[in-house]
Amino acid sequence: xxxxxxPSGRPDVDAAQRGGDxxxxxDGEGIPGDSTLExxxxxxxxxxxxxxxxxxxxDRIRQLMNTxxxxxxxxxxxxxxxxxxxxxxxxxxxxGYWDARITQLDGxxxxxx
Amino acid sequence: xxKGRPAQALEGxxxxxxxxxxxxxxxSIYADLLEFKRGILNRVHRDVANLQVPAQKxxxxxxxxxxxxxxxxxxxxxxxxxxxWELQGLWVDPTGRVVRHQGGEAALTKxxxxxxxFLLDHPHRYFTTSQILGxxxxxxxxxxxxxxxxxxxxxxxxxxxxIPADLVNKPGRxxxxxxxxx
Lengths: 113, 182
Known about the structure:
The structure holds 2 protein chains of 2 kinds.
Chain A: H1 11-19, H2 37-65, H3 70-78, H4 80-112
Helix pairs in contact in A: 1-4, 2-4
Chain B: H1 20-48, H2 53-88, E1 90-93, E2 98-101, E3 104-107, H3 110-121, H4 129-136, H5 144-161, E4 165-170, E5 174-179
Antiparallel strand pairs in B: 1-2, 2-3, 4-5
């Protein structure tokens, strides 16, 4: 994470910020630097799918927000949007790690040939 | 996970208000918020089902957060419903099984009272006949006709006391106590 945000006084918002911890991988993910090409491709696929899902959810939230009252819009801005944005950012970062690992392994693979 | 605790009050929200309109306003805000979150939750549930297992586990964080927010909103919505009843002058006495509303009074039977109390505690939510048998009366062995019978009796009580609420029945969803504007 590039910066640590102070507690907001909103447990749900704090949880959203925790959810955006880029160092947090998924169950069984392991460290990209130790991974084989096959594993790296697998995890890239996982992150590509989940990132696409989060982006679709965020689009849907923003679309639905347009039809809401000011109070509801404010609350959603404060609660849902940060949750999804933080999660998406985390997945984007993790995807970046796996992309980099694939490039690295692919380079070695080509050199070996 | 935050369970069953009220969400923090929203900006401008004051539960001590003496104005019926304020209570109605906040009830509609929380109802909208719940509807909004329900829509998002359903969408996420649908999308998560298409992901691979590790991704499903990671996405569960979103689901837990949304569910906990919804629980908080539901608690606040219930607080506002109780407040609106106070403002409306409704008084329910469990000891004597008496309901008073703006000078009128009715003594209820045990089952009538249990059903009314149950619906007042869960306003604007729908309950099937079997849920009412099990949750309002804790007696699933009773016949479903009993529910219809007591619903009829409660509707008459609501009408006689001038309580601005309807006990509605929606096919496939069940019964619900729904407020009317005064």
